């Protein structure tokens, strides 16, 4: 096999490939064996007609299409390997010559990874923002715990609903004096101020008393997901059946005993401060990595092929759909509720997709420039970590990755992480 490479654009090449006549002949014969059982020739039992008889009847080209399916992928794979081509999309195949007894000639046009011109990547200057945890931060955490452990007490008939109260209501919505679908609820608990209902609904219940009937005049938002209600006025007839209010415990030693394993408030505060400092330190380390990587990418020059961005956007959309499923919502339901289309969502992911692809390409270039590699020991260590997280034997995890062809992906992930660490270790941090 012969192959030459022609650069036709920044990120596109054409491989001119010539396959030996002998290999083409083997592929044609393989195609004959595949198809002969489906061809009926008078005078021959089905599947027994000789190849030359079939070709004489239907033309020699009868087996070319299937023969190409056998020979082209193998030849293309060999050509890109021999010429160190790194494609990022499926090739466009153009058969230029196919004839029995002659070499097969075809052209494969494909988009490839862009060349990355690295700028400064070692010693980039980044601010090292200090970690500070104040008494106010500790107090806010205590107040959050206080709210989490609040008791709900029932408000008497004379009490009025306030922001933060949970009211139990019956309600039914009417548009033009007619009830509409989905606008009715019974014994519905609603926390006033939670902003979970249509704008204006919760505010209209402030001051209500138990047993009170209220007509709430509400206008649906213009972007409301039900088109027949979007921007339309409606009346919700409501009955307040119960009001419950949060009662907070005093933040003292007894509170500390109730909400933690500590015997005093001072011990609880010290533990909160320690946890906040550890969290802040992790956040700072992540910020340092992000800042270093952002500068290194900004210093590099590269032209990202659109196909790479499109693929990354598809991946981001798929990941987003999986996160929605954890919340009991499908991607189709989400776009319907928000009045968007999947194309709208894709557009929103484009900046993130472009940034992600750029970072990966630059990191690969740095790893190559610094001859960074991944050892089998590092792969095994990562598999061990995964095994501990999933509470599965490491051998089981490794077998799964091998069966799915994901070992190379794992190595790539380890290499990128290793490269980020290298960049951080070689950055110049200045105090903010």
Automatic annotation (TrEMBL):
A GO CC term assigned to this protein in UniProt: cytoplasm
Biological processes annotated in GO: 'de novo' cotranslational protein folding; cell division; protein transport; protein unfolding
Alphabetized Pfam families for the sequence: FKBP_C, Trigger_C, Trigger_N
Record-linked PROSITE patterns: FKBP_PPIASE
EC number(s) given by UniProt: 5.2.1.8
Broad EC category: isomerase
Catalytic activity, reaction form: [protein]-peptidylproline (omega=180) = [protein]-peptidylproline (omega=0)
Keyword terms of this UniProt record: Cell cycle, Cell division, Chaperone, Cytoplasm, Isomerase, Rotamase
Location(s), subcellular: Cytoplasm
Domain PPIase FKBP-type: 164-249
Gene Ontology MF annotations: peptidyl-prolyl cis-trans isomerase activity; protein folding chaperone; ribosome binding
Domain notes: Consists of 3 domains; the N-terminus binds the ribosome, the middle domain has PPIase activity, while the C-terminus has intrinsic chaperone activity on its own.
Family to which the UniProt record says this protein belongs: Belongs to the FKBP-type PPIase family. Tig subfamily.
Classification via HAMAP family: Trigger_factor_Tig (MF_00303)
Function: Involved in protein export. Acts as a chaperone by maintaining the newly synthesized protein in an open conformation. Functions as a peptidyl-prolyl cis-trans isomerase.
Protein name according to UniProt: Trigger factor
Organism: Heliobacterium mobile (Heliobacillus mobilis)
């Amino acid at each position: 096999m012969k192959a030459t490479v022609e650069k036709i654009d920044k990120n596109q090449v054409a491989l001119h490939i010539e396959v030996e006549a002998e290999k083409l002949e083997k592929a044609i014969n393989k195609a004959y064996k595949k198809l002969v059982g489906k061809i009926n020739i008078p005078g021959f039992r089905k599947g027994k007609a000789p190849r030359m008889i079939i070709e004489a009847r239907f033309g020699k080209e009868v087996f070319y299409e299937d023969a190409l399916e056998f020979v082209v992928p193998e030849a293309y794979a060999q050509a890109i390997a021999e010429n160190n081509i790194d494609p990022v999309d499926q090739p466009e195949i153009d058969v230029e010559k196919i004839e029995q007894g002659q070499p097969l000639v075809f052209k494969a046009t494909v988009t490839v990874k862009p060349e990355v011109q690295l700028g400064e990547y070692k010693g980039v200057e980044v601010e090292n923002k200090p970690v500070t945890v104040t008494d106010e931060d500790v107090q806010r955490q205590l107040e959050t715990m206080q709210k989490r452990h609040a008791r709900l007490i029932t408000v008497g008939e004379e009490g009025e609903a306030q922001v933060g109260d949970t009211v139990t209501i019956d309600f039914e919505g009417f548009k033009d004096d007619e009830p509409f679908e989905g606008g009715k609820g019974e014994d519905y608990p609603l926390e006033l101020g939670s902003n979970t209902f249509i704008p204006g609904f919760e505010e209209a219940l402030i001051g209500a008393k138990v047993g009170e009937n209220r007509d709430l005049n509400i206008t649906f938002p213009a972007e409301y997901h039900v088109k027949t209600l979007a921007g339309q006025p409606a009346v919700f007839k409501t009955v307040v059946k119960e009001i419950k209010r949060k009662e907070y415990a005093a933040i003292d030693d007894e509170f500390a005993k109730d909400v933690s394993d500590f015997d005093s408030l001072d011990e609880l505060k010290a533990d909160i401060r320690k946890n906040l400092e550890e969290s802040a330190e992790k956040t700072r380390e992540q910020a340092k990595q992000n800042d270093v990587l952002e500068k290194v990418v900004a210093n590099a020059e590269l032209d990202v092929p659109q196909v790479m961005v499109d693929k990354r956007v598809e991946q981001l959309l798929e990941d987003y759909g999986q996160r929605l499923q954890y919340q009991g919502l499908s991607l189709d339901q989400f776009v319907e509720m928000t009045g968007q289309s999947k194309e709208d969502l894709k557009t929103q992911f484009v900046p993130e997709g472009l940034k992600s692809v750029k970072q990966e390409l630059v990191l690969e270039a740095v790893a190559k420039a610094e001859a960074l590699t991944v050892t089998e020991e590092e792969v095994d260590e990562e598999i061990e970590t995964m095994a501990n997280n999933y509470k599965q034997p490491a051998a089981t995890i490794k077998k799964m990755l091998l069966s799915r062809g994901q070992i190379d992906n794992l190595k790539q992930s380890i290499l990128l992480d290793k490269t980020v660490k290298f960049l951080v270790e070689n950055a110049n941090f200045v105090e903010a």
